[in-house]
Design a protein that fits this description.
The chain is an alpha+beta fold. The protein has a single domain, classed as S-adenosylmethionine decarboxylase, CATH 3.60.90. 19% of the residues lie in helices and 41% in strands. The protein has 2 helices and 8 strands, in the order E-E-E-H-E-E-E-E-H-E. The strands form 2 sheets. A 6-stranded antiparallel sheet has the order 4-5-6-7-3-8, covered by helices on one side. The protein has a two-stranded antiparallel ribbon with strand order 1-2. The longest helix is centred in the N-terminal third of the chain and has 14 residues.
Length: 136
């Protein structure tokens, strides 16, 4: 029997889920006021993770010349919001299918050279073995 083409993942523990949602925080990072640099870095990160880029948009906002942007992927998205005045960046990487956001993280650390990194991965869309009935 073949599995439906739903792009769900299988964890090493056998759990089936929609995708990995990696929340990254960089402190003391470089290049946080440069939209073109950030776009290239996040697109290169997507490629390193095995993802397919559909569209990217990055722009300045606010007085601190922060950058906000998104790279839309066939496998979901990568977003960033930066505060160059504090050296802080919040990065959101969600990928389904065969793409691996941890490979993206490695490249982003190389490109932004943060002093401190926090990264938490969440399995989104976990399929439960038992049905939960909705109470009206």
């Amino acid at each position: 029997m073949t599995e439906p083409l739903d792009h769900f993942k299988f964890g090493d523990d056998g759990e089936r889920y929609a995708g990995d949602h990696l929340l990254i925080e960089f402190w003391g990072a470089d290049h946080l006021a440069e939209p073109e640099y950030i776009c290239r870095a996040l697109e290169d990160g997507a490629r390193a993770a095995g993802a397919t880029i559909l569209h990217s948009h990055y722009h300045h906002f606010g007085d601190g010349a922060g950058v906000s942007g998104v790279t839309v992927l066939a496998e979901s998205h990568i977003t960033i919001h930066t505060w160059p005045e504090t050296g802080y960046a919040a990065i959101d990487v969600f990928m389904c299918g065969d793409a691996n956001p941890m490979d993206c993280l490695t490249l982003l650390q190389e490109r932004f050279n943060p002093q401190t990194v926090s990264a938490d991965n969440f399995r989104r869309g976990r399929l439960l073995h038992t049905r939960v009935q909705r109470v009206a």
